[in-house]
Design a protein that fits this description.
By secondary structure, the protein is an alpha/beta fold. The protein has helices at about 20-30, 35-50, 60-70, 90-95, 115-120, 140-150, 205-215, 220-225, 245-255, 255-280, 305-320, 335-340, 345-355, 365-380; strands at about 55-60, 80-85, 100-105, 125-130, 155-160, 165-170, 170, 180-185, 195-200, 290-295, 300, 355-360. A 7-stranded mixed beta sheet has the order 1-9-8-5-4-2-3, with helices on both faces. A hairpin with a 2-residue loop joins strand 6 (about 165-170) and strand 7. The structure holds pyridoxal-5'-phosphate (PLP).
Length: about 375
C-alpha cells in the first residue's frame, strides 16, 4: 500500500489536552454525578462566551431540545415550525412535548431555514420556530427575527448543535433565541462522548430548567437555601451530565483556540483545493457570508445531481475515503408525515439532500489528504 492509499475516516474524535487528568480528578474528588466542580467550570466557560443568563449541561443536545420544548408548555393544537433539512431530534423533541410539526424549506446561501417560507407558514398555532446553523454557519437570523416580530407568541429556538463559537453580526450563535442547545456528541467540534447544553437567554427562564433537569424537584432552591427541604414540584427527568464527562469536556474547551484554528485550516484547504472545480461550476462549496464567522464544523460540496453524488461517494469509498451524504428530508419521512400538522413542500431540501456530499473532516486531517480527496472528487465530476 502506498502512502496515498491510506484510509481516511470521516471523523476522528481524539484527546487534545487535559481530558483524562480531569476525569481522574472528578472520580478522585468524589462528586461524579451532575453539578460537580467540572460542571461548574464548563458552565462558566459557556456562560461567559454567550453572555447568557445561565447554561445547563445535559446528557445530549436532544435532551436540551426536550427541555426547551417542555418550557413552552405546549397545548393541544400548538405547532412548531422546523426545517425539513435537519437532524431528527430538532423535530422529535417538540413532538414528545405534544406539538404538531410544520416543515419549512431551506434557503440556498447557508442551507438554513428559509424565512420566506416560514413567513408563509406562520399562523396563531405556531409556538416556536427552530433555527439550525448548518455546518456551523449562522442561518438568516435577521430574516427570522423580522418574521417573528409579527408573532409575539412564537419563540425562536436555536438548535446550535454544530455552531458553538460561531458568530452572526458579531454576536455568538446561540444568543438570538429564547433558548439554544449545543451538542458534545463525538461527531461534533467539542466532545465528551455524549453530552449537550441548554443556553438560557432570558432571566425569567433561569429557574424552571433546573427543576426539569433535576427530576421535577426544587433541589436547586434547597441548595440555594431558599427552601428548607426539597420536594417534587413539576414535571422533569434526569437530564444532567455526569461530572466525569464534564471533566472530559473542560479538557476540550480549554483547547478551543487550537481546535478552531485546525478546523479552519482544513476548511480553507478544501476550499482552495476545490476552487478550480467550483469556478467551472462543477461543484458548489459552502460560502461564509461576510457578516458571520463559522465554527468550521464540516465541509460539504453540492454536486450536479444525485447520480453524480452517489458516484462520488462510491468512488471515494473504493479508495478508502469515507465521505457521506447528510439529512434525508424529514417532511416526507414516515415520522415526519405522522407527526406533522399539515403537509408542506420543501423542494430545495429534496434537491439538496440528493446532491450533497460531506467530506472527511477532523482536527488533524492533513492538507495532503485534503488535496488527495479533492483530486478524487475532481476525477468524478470533471
Ligand atoms: C448532532 C445534532 C443533534 C443531536 O445532538 P445529540 O447531542 O446527539 O443529541 C441535534 N441537532 C443537530 C442539528 C445536530 O447536528
Amino acid at each position: 500500500m502506498t502512502p496515498t492509499d491510506t484510509r481516511i475516516p470521516f471523523n476522528k474524535p481524539g484527546l487534545v489536552g487535559n481530558e483524562l487528568d480531569y476525569m481522574r480528578q472528578a472520580v478522585e474528588g468524589g462528586h461524579t454525578s451532575t453539578g460537580g466542580p467540572f460542571t461548574e467550570r464548563v458552565v462558566d466557560v459557556l456562560s461567559e462566551w454567550h453572555g447568557s443568563q445561565d447554561v445547563l449541561l445535559t446528557t445530549s443536545c436532544t435532551d436540551a431540545l426536550e427541555m426547551s420544548a417542555m418550557m413552552l408548555d405546549i397545548e393541544p393544537g400548538d405547532t412548531v415550525i422546523v426545517p425539513s433539512f435537519t437532524f431528527v431530534t430538532s423535530a422529535l423533541a417538540f413532538v414528545r412535548a405534544g406539538a404538531r410539526l410544520i416543515f419549512a424549506d431551506i434557503e440556498m446561501e447557508t442551507l438554513g431555514i428559509d424565512p420566506e417560507h416560514v413567513d408563509a407558514l406562520m399562523d396563531d398555532s405556531v409556538r416556536a420556530v427552530i433555527a439550525v446553523h448548518y455546518a456551523g454557519i449562522g442561518c438568516d437570523i435577521a430574516g427570522l427575527q423580522a418574521v417573528l416580530e409579527k408573532w409575539p407568541h412564537a419563540d425562536l429556538i436555536e438548535d446550535n448543535a454544530q455552531g458553538l463559537f460561531g458568530t452572526y453580526r458579531g454576536q455568538p450563535l446561540g444568543t438570538f433565541g429564547r433558548f439554544s442547545t449545543i451538542s458534545f456528541h463525538e461527531t461534533k467540534n467539542f466532545i465528551c462522548g455524549e453530552g449537550g447544553a441548554l443556553v438560557i437567554n432570558r432571566p425569567e427562564d433561569v429557574d424552571r430548567p433546573h427543576t426539569l433537569l433535576d427530576k421535577g424537584t426544587n433541589r436547586r432552591s434547597f441548595l440555594l437555601g431558599q427552601v428548607d427541604k426539597y420536594s417534587w414540584v413539576d414535571t422533569g427527568s434526569s437530564f444532567g451530565l455526569s461530572d466525569i464527562l464534564a471533566g472530559y469536556l473542560l479538557g476540550q474547551l480549554e483547547e478551543r483556540d487550537s481546535i478552531l484554528a485546525r478546523r479552519r485550516n482544513v476548511f480553507d484547504a478544501y476550499a482552495d483545493a476545490l476552487a478550480p472545480l467550483a469556478e467551472q461550476g462543477l461543484v458548489s462549496t459552502p460560502a461564509i457570508p461576510s457578516d458571520r464567522t463559522s465554527s468550521y464544523h464540516m465541509f460539504y460540496v453540492l454536486l450536479a445531481d444525485r447520480q453524480t453524488r452517489d458516484a462520488a461517494l462510491a468512488d471515494l469509498k473504493a479508495r478508502g475515503v469515507h465521505g457521506t451524504f447528510h439529512y434525508v428530508p424529514l417532511h416526507s419521512s414516515p415520522g415526519g408525515e405522522r407527526f406533522s400538522d399539515r403537509s408542506s413542500d420543501c423542494p430545495r431540501t429534496d434537491e439538496v439532500s440528493g446532491r450533497l456530499l460531506r467530506l472527511p473532516f477532523y482536527n488533524d486531517l492533513a492538507t495532503e489528504d485534503v488535496e488527495r480527496i479533492a483530486r478524487l472528487v475532481s476525477g468524478v465530476v470533471a
